[in-house]
Amino acid sequence: MSWSRRLLRSRALQVAIGVSAAEYLRLVWKTGRFVTEPADIYERVARDYPVILAMWHGQHYLAPFLKRPEHRAKVLVSKHRDGEVNAIAARWLGVDAIRGSGHQGVDFIGKGGVSAFKEMLSTLQDGSIVALTADVPTVARVAGLGIVKLASASGRPIYPVALATHRRIELDTWDRTSINLPFARGAGVVAEPIWVASDADANALELARSTLQAALDRATTRAYELVDRA
Known about the structure:
Blueprint: H1 3-8, H2 11-31, E1 33-37, H3 41-48, E2 52-55, E3 73-77, H4 81-92, E4 96-99, H5 113-125, E5 129-133, E6 135-136, E7 139-143, H6 146-154, E8 158-165, E9 168-170, E10 178-180, E11 185-190, H7 202-228
Parallel strand pairs: 1-11, 2-5, 2-8, 3-4, 3-5
Antiparallel strand pairs: 6-7, 8-11, 9-10
């Protein structure tokens, strides 16, 4: 193994990167001027608590700051080596991590999907929020079935969430990652909750999936409208 690969697998380096990333995001949040829409979103969430938060990949980095002190929350994080850094950053910001994949394809079991799904169900049953990205892996802005199956099995609603800042760096990556910058106007937009029946068949699950995808797109468009207007 090359020295560079050994370095990247170093626990000390992973912790340093994760903590640094978390503190950078804290700086962005603390120096930003954020608005939320709708204004009474926390009262709405309180009525449906615990809920499932759904976000687009690459647009989710500021999500830990939506959590209030009374909230308990966990986030689904990939089991990939890069995911360890993300898990460290999330924990540093007060959000525990569930390791696994939300993908429901042929490699679902191999990526720890079954155990992760069970842990997400348990987390919701214990009264904690579960947050995860809705995209099918490596396919931006296409929602997968995993999250709607979680809503069906748990009986908890999905709240589609979009976060944006007017000062940002947009990367040319598969997930259109947006690096939020400090001292920016920011907006968090939450769409209407999506409930999925416990006895939902394949057609009902697909309808919920497409509804979630459209809701996330609308929330994302609205969030950027709020921050980019003069």
